[in-house]
Amino acid sequence: MRKQCVFGPILSRRLGSSLGVNLVPYKTCNLDCVYCECGATLNLSIERREYLPTMAVIDALQEAALRLRGYPPFCVTFAGWGEPTLHAQFGRIAEAARRIFPKEHLVLITNGTLFARFRELLEEIQVFDLIIPSLDAGTEAVFQRINRPHPSLSFAEHLESLALLRQRFAKDIWLEVFIVEGLNDAPEELLALRTHLAHLRPNRIHLNTLDRRPTCTWVQAPSRERLEAIAHFLGGEVIPSFHVARISPQATGHELSGEQQCAPRECHSTPR
Ligand code: SF4
User: Fold this and answer.
1) For the CA of 38, the nearest atom of ligand 1
2) pLDDT of 49-78, one tens digit each?
3) Which ranges carry the Radical SAM core domain (predicted)?
4) Which of 30, 57, 172, 187 could covalently link to 46 via disulfide, CB atoms 3.0 to 4.6 Å apart?
5) Nearest Cα to Cα of residue 15 among 63, 66, 78
């Protein structure tokens, strides 16, 4: 059980040495993205529940802190086998992580869809230093095709959720856009997406694409040149293979940076 809750540290392309925190059993999410590199969603749920025992997660964090004494990770990252904000005790676990790792950056990787429906999350996220949500579509039709959401979740609610996140979270937001060739890369879709991004005002826009086996085998990555062109159009950057992790001083009170080696993509879909 504890191995399910806390994993790593892994070397992340964006975050450096990152201790992962997983709050849900494989594979529990309110989306079933065609590109998910963790596999198809087995439990498509939009219910907040105590999916993994809260004390097991907190105990695993304490054990990890002891194990890593003298070699602390750069970040403690809530990610894992599905959507972490679905956990009913997410806020309590995040507070515990803050206490157990007071100096490390606390990062949340989320699909960003639940802040409008569960407004308590807007308080629960305040202990984080950095939030990395996703937005892959410019329209409802493409949202349905690429993210295959729980039937009760609309694209308008996803946008409202991200807008509330921006309003209420003053620290860094790095918004991730996953590009699937032939699905969300049409000019009119990208234009709609760019309009939403201008409204949402993330601190950074990160373009991502496939580098592992997707849930749907027909999913194709665009060429590097095409991805670079889309990143330019959207005002973002392609997630680099080598990166200097840099979280702004207002997020943490001090700026930190550290060059890291290429590593597996950090993703809310996969603990690695
Ligand atoms: S990519 Fe993330 S949001 Fe999409 S199905 Fe996988 S875990 Fe859920």
Assistant:
1) 6
2) 999 999 999 999 999 999 999 999 999 999
3) 13-250
4) 30
5) 78
Domain boundaries, the chain: 2-260
Q: What is the rounded distance in angstroms from the CA atom of residue 268 to the CA atom of residue 29?
A: 10
Which ligand 1 atom is nearest residue 267's CA?
Answer: 2
Q: What is the DSSP letter of 239?
A: P
Residue 38 near ligand 1, beta carbon < 6 Å: yes
Q: In which residue are the tokens 């005790």 written?
A: 89
Query: Measured in angstroms, how far is the CA atom of residue 66 from the centroid of ligand 1?
Result: 31
- Provide the CATH number for the domain formed by 2-260 in this structure: 3.20.20.70
- CB burial of residue 69 (10 Å; 0-12, 13-18, 19+): exposed
Low-confidence winner among 159-173, 240-254, 255-269 (lowest mean pLDDT)? 255-269
Q: Where is 60: in which H helix or E strand?
A: helix 54-67
Nearest residue CA, atom 4 of ligand 1?
33
**Gap between the terminal Cα atoms of the chain:** 16
